[in-house]
Amino acid sequence: MTQGILIYALNNDKIDYCKIALYAAKQAKKYLKKEVTIVTDSPDYIKSLPDFDKHVDNVINVTYGLDYGDVQEWLPGAMYNPGTNVTYKGRLYWTKKHQIHKKTFNFLEWESDPNQALNFLSKVQHRKHFDGAMSHKRTEFKNDIRTHSFFLTPYDETLVIDCDYIINNDALVHAWDQKAYDFLIYKDSNDLCDWRKDLYFKKISDYTLDFYWATVFWFKKNDQTLTFFHLLQHIEDNWQYYRYLYQIHDTLYRNDFAFSIAIHMMNGYQKTEWNGILPGKMYHVLDQDLLLEHDGTRMKFLLAKEKYYGEYTAMTTDKLNVHVMNKFSINRLLSNE
Amino acid sequence: MDERLEKALEFSNYMVTLNNQKRALKEKFYNECVFYDNGGTFTITKEMITFVKVLVDKGNKDAVLIDDNDLPIMIDNLEKFYEELVTSYFEASNAYYTEYQKLKTKRSVEALTK
């Protein structure tokens, strides 16, 4: 069984996701001691960053909108002759054998170049990213690739983390020890800002489903998790329908919502236990807060005050894993290092 | 600004930060009070420690314990499990105590978050 960590770093012109992802990789490798793979659209740039080889084992290259010419997408149930080329989930494959009537794509029966870039047609979205309570920028973000994690990961058992999830302890390593679940995720995250702790992220909308965090999740490759990721892609492809169905006001496609809906469906539209809960606790700060320092396991934050915009209170955490949503402040911190 | 008001606001800021730090310490303690064994997750509580001690004292070598996720986990060596449980609890609570004592002596926002 191969085990490892997958981190996404899809850059834009305002946030250096590659630098942040490399930092997340450094922390993850230090505490979890597993292989790290980064999925990026800027492979040359990320490889040029200091200590890249120390913290990252593999890079998966993603390109956008590559033209495969006449090559067709693989179809379930179709017959293929030796020498046929097909594309499947953004990659080119060929076969040396006759392929008949398969319901699902069998990776073992097809050959591909392991170094080829993943051809991905991202639905680019734009959103407001705050940098503290008083300032924000509108940036491009490509978050829909996460639903391809099953097809991208080189590992049998993968922990996927957001590049802004900073690991400071080894709790998540126990995800690989448990044998009860094929898919683990956090349902609750603790806001470090006390006055906000019960305001957000309990349900995906007022009267509907429980909220799950796609920030960190662990999965084992098998038929069930394959179904889950197919379901995620279906939800993503039909986002407007699901958005209205579950009364989600936000027009942006958001992975947390799609994961919450897919988990609900996998659970038979009830509260059962298809998925497990990740070990350890997840903490978060919003992009209205600022990360000031990170030294060893200690992180110092400025947390936005309630009703006093632009004013903050300080907090220092030790050995807590924190999802730092203010990516500008991580970038600033890394630039000053 | 009136000096008295300035002092009051300064104290108010100090109190909020002190509470933030108390919360951060408590969260660290709870995080460290989790013990993982044989694929199971066990939050270390006083009840848990007492229950395992009773099992050990009754001469049980192994037992099935229900973990935080309500999963039955076979503990093969109860005595070792008990020792590790107690060690983890004391390590976490001693660290909590030491950090808390340090916190109590700090009188400024800057000192609190150092």
Task: Describe the SSE topology.
The complex is a heterodimer of chains A (337) and B (114).
Chain A: E1 3-9, H1 17-32, E2 35-40, H2 43-48, H3 52-55, E3 58-64, E4 72-73, E5 85-88, E6 91-94, E7 118-120, E8 125-130, E9 136-141, H4 149-152, E10 157-161, E11 165-166, E12 183-186, E13 189-191, E14 213-220, H5 223-237, H6 239-245, H7 255-266, E15 276-277, E16 282-285, E17 290-295, E18 298-304, E19 312-318, E20 322-324, H8 327-335
Parallel strand pairs in A: 1-2, 1-10, 2-3, 3-7, 4-5, 12-15, 13-16, 16-20
Antiparallel strand pairs in A: 5-6, 8-9, 10-14, 11-20, 12-14, 17-18, 18-19
Helix pairs in contact in A: 1-8, 5-7
Chain B: H1 3-32, E1 34-37, E2 40-43, H2 46-57, E3 63-66, E4 72-75, H3 78-105, H4 109-112
Antiparallel strand pairs in B: 1-2, 3-4
Helix pairs in contact in B: 1-3, 2-3
Architecture overview:
The complex is a heterodimer of chains A (337) and B (114). Chain A is of the alpha/beta class. Chain A has 2 domains: 3-61 and 122-283, Spore Coat Polysaccharide Biosynthesis Protein SpsA, Chain A (Alpha-Beta Complex); 67-116, Seminal Fluid Protein  PDC-109 (Domain B), CATH 2.10.10.20. Chain A is 22% helix and 28% strand. Chain A contains 8 helices and 20 strands. In chain A, strand 18 (298-304) and strand 19 form a beta hairpin. In chain A, helix 1 packs across helix 8 and helix 5 crosses helix 7. The radius of gyration of chain A is 20 Å and the shape is globular. Chain B has one domain. Chain B has helices at residues 3-32, 46-57, 78-105, 109-112, and strands at residues 34-37, 40-43, 63-66, 72-75. In chain B, strand 3 (63-66) and strand 4 (72-75) form a beta hairpin. The longest helix of chain B has 30 residues, at 3-32. Chain B has 114 residues and is α+β, with helices and mostly antiparallel strands. The model of chain B has no long low-confidence stretch (mean pLDDT 92). Chain B contains 4 helices and 4 strands; from the N terminus they run H-E-E-H-E-E-H-H. Chain B is 65% helix and 14% strand. The chains are: A alpha/beta (337), B alpha+beta (114). At the A-B interface, strand 15 and strand 19 of A face helix 1 of B.
